[in-house]
């Protein structure tokens, strides 16, 4: 990256953010076999302020957030005025870090990141936290989400001389910070965030400050916790349980927290007023771990209520209820409790398939669902089975699961989905196919039923979903993004060709 950039076309020279490259190794990435058409995970962030074991806490916190991303992991650590120590790598948290790596990473402040696997570039350059050099010193940034206007901002910056080394939205924000006329990092971050749109949970670490920010709509979840006198920040509250910390509160939409390493002071500020509140509904349906709480709503309990509501909307006489592991188990239990039909483990997940370096042939790929799921023949044979899943994306996985149950002897297979039809792409950090690849966008429910070979098919209504989460029209403090179901996006969105995750 260039050491200088011109500001405003007036020849004023300013230090540009320079990406450190000293940790680039192991460019090889385990190839995913593409067996499932489920939605791509989001990313996860974890931050520590004021704890002597910041690096180790980050390791365990990221491990608890591993479900949000399995492509890469990284941690950056610093003390007040100290040089940053950081490490990033491709793979799971336990594959990227060990005692020899974590040992030298001393400091009381840290930010960490796990990145999900996308259909785009898979390389270490996009692993986070990204670490930059700029005029005020070192700057490390980690984010979960996607900036919908990043492509246009990037084009404008490139016309002004900026050179980008990654395809990450995070680097766009770093350039905006570097180009700010404010020498104060807090003011520069505020100015940068006011120029971007979309969904994000940001952690910025400077030489003597940790800055925490959440988008004005609250699209991405972001929570604060306490461990003794230390402050912790995470994409989900389950990360606090992993390190023995206590949930403190959610970061408010548009809020900016500034934590000073020299004084230990925490300043509550904001860079934007709260806009139309729109927490991502898919967090409750699919992404978040069942033991997490988002906006004081427990995910497992919400999913059970989705199952109960689904049963009230679409009862079918059957012998057994089962769920697609793991995210649909809670809803399946709720459906069974509401109907009185016994819940059984009709499908078993093989937890040791992991990732593979081989690319199976198309023939093997068609049979690949059996690598990860097995039907329990003694449970489903001769039975009328209700199978609960959280969503249908392209429909290929649903077809394989239905056929798997039929091959195991199921007499009838009734598919119930604990969300409305997923018919619109996400622009806020979920890796989704284009609209034409989403089966609910091009087929009716009856056509989908035929395509997946089910005896019956029913989706949870949007009203039922919001009721299950806990939404009431009288509560102005709650609001959810349901654009993937109703095409009502809370922010301006780009052309679909610009789809992608900000981490990619």
UniProtKB/TrEMBL annotation:
<feature type="domain" description="Glutamine amidotransferase type-2">
    <location>
        <begin position="43"/>
        <end position="262"/>
    </location>
</feature>
<feature type="binding site">
    <location>
        <position position="481"/>
    </location>
    <ligand>
        <name>[4Fe-4S] cluster</name>
    </ligand>
</feature>
<keyword id="KW-0004">4Fe-4S</keyword>
<keyword id="KW-0808">Transferase</keyword>
<dbReference type="InterPro" id="IPR005854">
    <property type="entry name" value="PurF"/>
</dbReference>
<keyword id="KW-0408">Iron</keyword>
<dbReference type="GO" id="GO:0009113">
    <property type="term" value="P:purine nucleobase biosynthetic process"/>
</dbReference>
<protein>
    <recommendedName>
        <fullName>Amidophosphoribosyltransferase</fullName>
        <ecNumber>2.4.2.14</ecNumber>
    </recommendedName>
</protein>
<keyword id="KW-0315">Glutamine amidotransferase</keyword>
<comment type="function">
    <text>Catalyzes the formation of phosphoribosylamine from phosphoribosylpyrophosphate (PRPP) and glutamine.</text>
</comment>
<dbReference type="InterPro" id="IPR035584">
    <property type="entry name" value="PurF_N"/>
</dbReference>
<keyword id="KW-0479">Metal-binding</keyword>
<comment type="similarity">
    <text>In the C-terminal section; belongs to the purine/pyrimidine phosphoribosyltransferase family.</text>
</comment>
<keyword id="KW-0658">Purine biosynthesis</keyword>
<keyword id="KW-0328">Glycosyltransferase</keyword>
<feature type="binding site">
    <location>
        <position position="389"/>
    </location>
    <ligand>
        <name>Mg(2+)</name>
    </ligand>
</feature>
<dbReference type="Pfam" id="PF00156">
    <property type="entry name" value="Pribosyltran"/>
</dbReference>
<comment type="pathway">
    <text>Purine metabolism; IMP biosynthesis via de novo pathway; N(1)-(5-phospho-D-ribosyl)glycinamide from 5-phospho-alpha-D-ribose 1-diphosphate: step 1/2.</text>
</comment>
<dbReference type="InterPro" id="IPR000836">
    <property type="entry name" value="PRTase_dom"/>
</dbReference>
<dbReference type="GO" id="GO:0004044">
    <property type="term" value="F:amidophosphoribosyltransferase activity"/>
</dbReference>
<dbReference type="GO" id="GO:0051539">
    <property type="term" value="F:4 iron, 4 sulfur cluster binding"/>
</dbReference>
<keyword id="KW-0411">Iron-sulfur</keyword>
<dbReference type="Pfam" id="PF13522">
    <property type="entry name" value="GATase_6"/>
</dbReference>
<dbReference type="InterPro" id="IPR017932">
    <property type="entry name" value="GATase_2_dom"/>
</dbReference>
<dbReference type="GO" id="GO:0006189">
    <property type="term" value="P:'de novo' IMP biosynthetic process"/>
</dbReference>
<feature type="active site" description="Nucleophile">
    <location>
        <position position="43"/>
    </location>
</feature>
<feature type="binding site">
    <location>
        <position position="426"/>
    </location>
    <ligand>
        <name>[4Fe-4S] cluster</name>
    </ligand>
</feature>
<dbReference type="GO" id="GO:0000287">
    <property type="term" value="F:magnesium ion binding"/>
</dbReference>
<feature type="binding site">
    <location>
        <position position="484"/>
    </location>
    <ligand>
        <name>[4Fe-4S] cluster</name>
    </ligand>
</feature>
<keyword id="KW-0460">Magnesium</keyword>
<feature type="binding site">
    <location>
        <position position="327"/>
    </location>
    <ligand>
        <name>Mg(2+)</name>
    </ligand>
</feature>
<feature type="binding site">
    <location>
        <position position="280"/>
    </location>
    <ligand>
        <name>[4Fe-4S] cluster</name>
    </ligand>
</feature>
<feature type="binding site">
    <location>
        <position position="390"/>
    </location>
    <ligand>
        <name>Mg(2+)</name>
    </ligand>
</feature>
């Amino acid at each position: 990256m260039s050491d200088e950039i011109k500001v405003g076309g007036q020849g004023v020279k300013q230090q540009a953010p320079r990406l450190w490259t000293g940790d680039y190794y192991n460019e090889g990435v385990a190839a995913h076999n593409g067996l499932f058409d489920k939605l791509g995970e989001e990313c996860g962030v974890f931050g520590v302020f004021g704890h002597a074991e910041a690096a180790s806490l980050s390791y365990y916190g990221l491990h608890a957030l591993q479900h949000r991303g399995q492509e890469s992991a990284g941690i950056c650590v610093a003390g007040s005025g100290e040089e940053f120590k950081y490490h990033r790598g491709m793979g799971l948290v336990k594959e990227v870090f060990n005692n020899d790596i974590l040992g030298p990473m001393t400091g009381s402040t840290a930010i960490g990141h796990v990145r999900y696997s996308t259909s785009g570039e898979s390389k270490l350059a996009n692993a986070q936290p990204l670490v930059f050099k700029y005029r005020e010193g070192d700057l490390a940034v980690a984010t979960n989400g996607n900036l919908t206007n990043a492509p246009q901002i990037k084009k404008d910056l490139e016309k002004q001389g900026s050179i980008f080394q990654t395809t990450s939205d995070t680097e766009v924000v770093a350039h905006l910070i570097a180009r700010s006329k404010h020498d104060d990092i807090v003011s520069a971050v505020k100015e940068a965030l006011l120029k971007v749109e979309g969904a994000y949970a940001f952690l910025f670490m400077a030489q003597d400050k940790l800055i925490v920010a959440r988008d004005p709509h609250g699209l991405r979840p972001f929570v604060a916790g306490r461990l003794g006198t230390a402050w912790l920040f995470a994409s989900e509250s389950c990360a606090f349980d992993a390190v023995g910390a206590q949930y403190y509160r959610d970061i408010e939409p548009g809020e900016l927290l500034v934590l000073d390493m020299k004084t230990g002071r925490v300043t509550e500020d904001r860079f934007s007023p709260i806009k139309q509140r729109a927490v991502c509904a898919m967090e409750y349906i699919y992404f978040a771990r069942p033991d997490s709480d988002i906006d004081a709503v427990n995910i497992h309990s919400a999913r059970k209520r989705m199952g109960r509501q689904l049963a009230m909307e679409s009862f079918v006489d059957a012998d057994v209820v089962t769920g697609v592991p793991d995210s649909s188990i809670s809803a399946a239990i709720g459906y069974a409790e509401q109907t009185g039909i016994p819940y059984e483990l009709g499908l078993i997940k093989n937890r040791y398939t992991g990732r593979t370096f081989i690319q199976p042939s198309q023939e093997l790929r068609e049979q690949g669902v059996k690598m990860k799921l097995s039907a329990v023949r003694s449970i489903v044979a001769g039975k009328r089975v209700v199978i609960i899943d959280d969503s249908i994306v392209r429909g290929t996985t649903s077809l394989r699961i239905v056929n798997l149950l039929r091959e195991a002897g199921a007499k009838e297979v009734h598919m119930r989905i604990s969300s409305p039809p997923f018919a619109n792409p996400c622009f806020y950090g979920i890796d989704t196919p284009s609209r034409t690849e989403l089966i609910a966008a091009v087929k009716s429910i009856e056509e989908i039923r035929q395509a997946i070979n089910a005896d019956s098919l029913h989706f949870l209504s949007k009203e039922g979903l919001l009721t299950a989460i806990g939404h009431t029209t009288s509560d102005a403090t709650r609001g959810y993004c349901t654009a993937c179901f109703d095409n009502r996006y809370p922010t301006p969105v780009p052309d679909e060709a610009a789809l992608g995750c900000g981490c990619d």
